[in-house]
Amino acid sequence: MVRTAGAAIEIRNVTQAFRSGGDDLPVLDNVSLSVAPGELVALVGPSGSGKSTLIRLLAGLDQPLFGSVSVDGKVVKSPDPSRSLVFQDPTLLPWRTVRGNVAIGPQARGVANRSKQRIDEALELVGLTDFADAWPAQLSGGMAQRAALARALVNDPPVLLLDEPLGKLDSLTRRVLQGELLRLWQERGFTAVLITHDVTEALVLADRLVVLSPRPARIREVVEIGLARPRDQSSPEFVQLRARILALLDEEATTPPDELEDVH
Ligand SMILES: Nc1ncnc2c1ncn2[C@@H]1O[C@H](COP(=O)(O)OP(=O)(O)OP(=O)(O)O)[C@@H](O)[C@H]1O
Ligand SMILES: [Mg+2]
What is the pTM of this model? Predict the structure, then answer.
């Protein structure tokens, strides 16, 4: 497989709201962020703040109410294999083998025959060569998530969108797959946006970490991680950075003063 150059992502003044029982539920409030080609950015923030809403806009699954999302200068209007999204749930088709699941993208584009070698390479990249003919029901959680990653990577996406991809895995498998993800990103060169609740995971993987406020999400802080990889989680710099982010998130989780006033 050739190395894919990552794409530049530009999120400009994005505001999003949903209709909820006749009222508008504001979810994203004027969010702007630029992600450089080949960069790995992690998004952290309270549950329900709007992280998945934002990544769905990047994937082109929804359109923002105001503002714009563009990739390499082109406004994102619909989903595209060049922007693959991997969820917490691997969502493999149970009636297709692992290889059959990985072949979905190339088949949809009518290039399955030409892509046979690429499908094999994607399976090899995630270490599933020996399980190519297995059924999803025969896989462990970690293996299923590897298959979901292969299904995304087979398209050679310049942008990989990851919405808590390791969220359901046990901590040991999670650590292993964090290493795999890092290796894949370093080898392939795509731009990655990773949503995670795990601050350590964000600090192990990302170039920058974006802290979002509670809903409606605003960008609270962008932290440049700036530590050499592989990162030593016990180094004073890492420990200090982690404490700082956790304190920020704790601050965000406390009730804002204007809401306290409403109560009284
Ligand atoms: N399609 C939708 N229609 C209505 N409301 C929605 C829709 N999608 C999301 N929401 C609401 O938007 C808010 C933000 O949801 P979102 O899934 O983006 O949060 P999140 O930060 O990803 O949370 P979590 O960390 O729990 O995954 C929630 O209040 C949710 O109920
Ligand atoms: Mg979410």
Answer: 0.93
